[in-house]
Amino acid sequence: MSDFQSGGVSISTTESLRKLTEQLVQAIDCLTGLGDDYSTSRAELELLQQRLAEGRFHLAVLGQFKRGKSTLLNALLGDDLLPTDILPVTAIPTFISSGSEITVRVYFFDRSETDYFPTDDDRSLAAFLADYVTEAGNPHNQHQVSRVEISHPAALLHQGVVLVDTPGIGSTLKHNTEVAHQILPQCDAALFLVSPDPPITEIELEYLAQIKQQLPRTFYLLNKVDFLNAEEQLASLKFLASQLETLCDGEPQVLPISARRGLQARLEGDSHAWNESGMQRVEQSLIDFFAREKQQTLQTAIARRTLDLISDAGMQLQLSLSALKLPEAELQRRLEQFRLSLPAVEREQQAAVDVLAGDLKRVIARLAEEIEVLRKKAKQQILSQVEEHLVVVEDPEQMERLVHATIATETEQFFAPAMRSTAELIRQEATRLLSLNQQRSNRLIEQVRQTAAELFDIPYHAPAAGASYSPFAVPAWSNDLFTSDMDPLGQRLSRKFFTRKYRRKRTVNRLREESRKLLNRNIEQISWALRQSLDESFRQFGSELGEQLGKTIAATRKAMEVALERSESHSRESSKTEISLRKALQVLEDIKHSLAGE
Ligand SMILES: Nc1nc2c(ncn2[C@@H]2O[C@H](COP(=O)(O)OP(=O)(O)O)[C@@H](O)[C@H]2O)c(=O)[nH]1
Ligand SMILES: [Mg+2]
């Protein structure tokens, strides 16, 4: 029996494969007949069709950034292939499938040519990959890489298994979080990775809820257990299980692992250590799962996605059809009514923008309070130690050395955790407010769709997945944020010309002043970094809010205007259009019902 519990997959057998294949062909045919308006949905269906035919199963590793996703994949492949780092690295989804040797192909958004490894130059594979999938080699994806495909001879990849490395959610890099959401419709099952400290965050639970909605199977791994003793590991697993319980109908199995130790064991061929790392159990469970349930899960995932795409196309079709059926004057009137409803929407949107700005101000005020608390604490903790040297030490040179040493250790020890806890506090507050704003904006978008639906007497379909905004991201931890270097200017007072007493007094004053300045400078850096992140998250959120709403309005308006145009043109033409639309709708409805098993 597999360690991963069965998720109650019901579709099975070759008969259902044959049926699903046929349904896809019908749906694609139907959308092809409808022309360019439906080309995006058609292209997506074609990709699903291809995957189903090839039995290409996408198992994605998902989770927050830095949980060890890439390390885990490297351990499973037995190869130090994907870049891993303490900084966010994987900005691009990477698909790893079976091949007799290692090759890499890089795809771009803005051109159809691809880049390929091995190349003519002598670059290593790691260097080649780093140029595309790391933030350092390809900052903010300026090279417009859409995805990377790697082929690898690892046995685990046989029989159509494709492992997918994803950028994490919750990273400072917003585009990573976006990609982590956009990848979900392409995945069939997921390994969801968490690690202790903290075991699981609010953002992860939200992400997981989306994953559960879209993917038929999810497996849970607690990574980095090498940080924990047996007791702590047990407590972590228990806590995780309780957090996951509501999402998973019952306590899910969470396997504890150390991907890093596993990778090392694989590279050294140490089977005992491989077993100890927990990775052997993961590998065996995956092999069992692939053997027993891969085909079923693939079919379930593809059937679900097909159903979603067909439902969306059906709604678009219904809107065109209802519009077409109406007399031209009536259509004009309703279109006008829709237009008239827009200013109210725009007013509400403006109100939403104002609320957002107010919320940002509130979080900034909260940040200022926290920063003052921090300043006080830093003074108590660091300056009191400095002051001790200033009082006790007689020799000015020795005093200088001691103060510098104290500042250097204390800066790191105080500010690193202080930064983390302040950032966490601000993150929680920002996430709470942004999620309220998101609910408001989702309601507004729904309102527009509902107005359109009511005007044209068509049933209202809630969107498959609401717009998802990336929440506030804590700034990346970097030592550059803090400095312990004191001002080197004007130090030395010549021993020759001044008495030691005078030199000591001057040194005390200068060190006191510099320590204060340095401490304030570090506080300002923290404040500035968090303020930047806040501004950026709220700004992005605001612009996405406008964009989503704009798109919904534009799409609805376009469907009506197209209908209006057609009804204005020749009536015979129009009745022909109506017949073909009606036929298409019937076809889609039939497929939908048979997909839903009705
Ligand atoms: N201690 C420990 N560190 C790990 C483990 N797995 C990964 N890491 C480290 O965590 C950091 C992030 O790993 P990476 O695989 O890049 O995470 P990703 O962002 O989720 O892909 C790296 O420094 C890894 O070496 C583990 O099992 N134990
Ligand atoms: Mg990674």
Structural summary, described in words:
- This protein is α/β, with parallel strands linked by helices.
- The protein has two domains: 219 residues, 3-Layer(aba) Sandwich (Rossmann fold); 238 residues, no CATH class.
- It has 14 helices and nine strands.
- The chain has a nine-stranded mixed β-sheet, with helices on both faces.
- Strand 7, helix 6 and strand 8 form a beta-alpha-beta unit.
- The two termini are 32 Å apart.
- The structure holds guanosine-5'-diphosphate (GDP) and magnesium ion.
- The site of magnesium ion has 5 residues, from helix 3.
Provide the residue-averaged pLDDT.
83
Widest beta sheet: strand line-up: 4-3-5-2-6-1-7-8-9
Bound molecules: guanosine-5'-diphosphate, magnesium ion
Strands, total number: 9
Instruction: Give the overall form.
Output: globular
pLDDT < 50 stretches:
5-11, 460-470
Pattern of helices and strands? HHEHEEEHEEHEHEHEHHHHHHH
Strand content: 5-15%
Helix residue percentage? 55-70%
Structural class: alpha/beta
User: Radius of gyration, Cα only, in angstroms?
Assistant: 30 Å
What is the straight-line distance between the termini?
32 Å
- Largest β sheet strand count, sense and barrel closure: 9 strands, mixed
**How many structural domains does the protein architecture include?**
2
Number of helices: 14
